[in-house]
Design brief:
- By secondary structure, the chain is mainly alpha-helical.
- About 65% of the residues lie in helices and about 5% in strands.
- It folds into 3 domains: about 90 residues, Fumarase/aspartase (N-terminal domain) (Fumarase C, Chain B, domain 1, Orthogonal Bundle); about 250 residues, Fumarase/aspartase (Central domain) (Fumarase C, Chain A, domain 2), CATH 1.20.200; about 60 residues, Fumarase/aspartase (C-terminal domain) (Ribonucleotide Reductase Protein R1, domain 1, Orthogonal Bundle), CATH 1.10.40.30.
- The protein has 19 helices and 6 strands.
């Protein structure tokens, strides 16, 4: 499913070709640093940079014999470079290359995910402004509460995904750390100056107090952030799934010409996109747990984390990228039914205005307890028997006595849904700014 829909640029990042290219970037950056420190002659560096290359198939062929991926890679590169290859990997251990290159892959992936978040944010902003004053039933516990607007609902999601974007920027920084510190992080055969120059060359941050590997807390933060983004995606997906229910039908995913909803029932129009996303987010949470498990390694290093990261790196990044773009497309094409929103507002005979009446009665001088008793009494009768909540209140002598001779007009104001929208502009301004 994921491979079918993956946008090409994210899939390319996690190919063997790009992974080995990142390894080569690290090795060449180390060679340039050593050259500046006088350990590699200029002519040798020139030859290395001109000839360094690899072939994925050849690396795999060598690895089948050596059972060591980095040695296989370096052997293949040496086949291209010749005698000057003796300067490549000078003072480095395999994890210097692997961890630094992995940080480059995470950083490259994270930047694409940021762009996908930007697309979703733009879609949410556009649709929120479009429906800023489209009145909709607000619900708590799945039960009618008080009116909101569809725009308020969407701008709230905009605010959440904006926070997700801030989290991701921080997490990319936490994960974009590399090391060139040798076999156990002591710089015994390489200098801190080399590490600093390599990281500056590659746009990464040197890991502080690395062992043979970079500590995994930064990667755990990154993958947990992807899971949080997934949580935001699922919350929006569940909202769409609810709104598309036949009994509600306030919004629904676009249904393409020729699309089929069921092999047995030709009438079906199912929220398959939202359901797919709800399922995929479960994987992101699993990847986050795996990243947390990767933090505890034996002493200066074991390799229990390695196989995990080879899986969760591409899977979590590709899945997050795809899910954000799919959700963005869903919001861009979402079909909205304001008339059904209005219909649902009226389903309970005006019960949704109970708090307005409660407050008005309390302000008239009745104790809050008595006001609550009066309002709930007529609310429960309306639940049980139907009819008009407003008329029951209007015909109650206690209510009329409290509200006075203009009880009817006062109730009309209290039952006006627009009374709930007075702060819509304020909320939008807090999230989107005055413009």
């Amino acid at each position: 499913m994921i491979a079918r829909y993956t946008l090409p640029e994210m899939g390319r990042i996690w190919t063997d070709e790009n992974r080995y290219a990142k390894w080569l970037d690290v090795e060449l950056a180390a060679c340039r640093a050593w050259n500046k420190l006088g350990r590699i002659p200029g002519e040798a560096l020139a030859e290395i940079e001109a000839k360094a290359a690899f072939e994925v198939a050849r690396v795999e062929e060598i690895e089948a014999e050596t059972r060591h991926d980095v040695i296989a890679f370096l052997t293949n590169v040496a086949e291209h470079v010749g005698p000057s290859s003796r300067y490549i990997h000078l003072g480095l251990t395999s994890s210097d290359v692997l961890d630094t290159a992995y940080a480059l892959l995470i950083k490259e992936s994270g930047e694409l995910i940021l762009a996908a978040l930007d697309r979703l944010l733009a879609a949410l902003k556009t649709r929120a402004l479009e429906h800023k004053y489209t009145i909709q039933m607000g619900r708590s516990h799945g039960i009618h509460a008080e009116p909101v607007t569809f725009g308020l609902k969407l701008v709230g999601f905009y605010a959440e995904f904006a926070r997700d974007r801030e989290r991701l920027e921080r997490a990319i920084g936490a994960a974009a750390r590399g090391k060139i510190s040798g076999a156990v992080g002591t710089y015994a055969n390489v200098t801190p100056e080399v590490e600093k120059m390599v990281m500056a060359d590659l746009g990464l941050t040197p890991a502080v107090a690395s062992t043979q590997v970079v500590s995994r807390d930064g990667l755990a933060e990154y993958f947990c952030t992807l899971a949080i983004i997934g949580g935001s995606i699922e919350r929006l997906a569940v909202e769409i799934r609810h709104m598309q229910r036949t009994e509600v039908l306030e919004a629904e995913e676009a249904f393409a010409k020729g699309q089929k909803g069921s092999s047995a029932m030709p009438h079906k129009r199912n929220p398959i996109g939202s359901e797919n996303l709800s399922g995929q987010v479960r994987l992101l949470r699993g990847y986050a747990l795996a990243a947390l498990e990767n933090m505890a390694l034996w002493h200066e290093r074991d390799i229990s984390h390695s196989s995990v990261e080879r899986t969760i790196g591409p899977d979590a990044d590709i899945l997050t990228h795809y899910s954000l773009h799919r959700m963005a497309g869903m919001i861009e094409r979402l079909t909205v039914y304001p008339e059904n929103m209005q219909r649902n507002l009226n389903l309970t005979g005006g019960l949704i205005h109970s708090q307005q009446v409660l407050l008005a009665l309390a302000q008239s001088g009745i104790s809050r307890e008595d006001a609550y008793r009066l309002v709930q009494q007529h609310a429960m009768a309306t639940w049980a028997e139907g009819g008009s909540f407003r008329e029951r209140l209007k015909n109650d002598p206690e209510v009329s006595q409290a509200l006075g001779e203009n009880t009817g007009e006062i109730l009309d104001g209290l039952f006006d849904p627009k009374a709930h929208l007075t702060q819509v502009d304020y909320i939008f301004e807090q999230i989107l700014g005055k413009d």
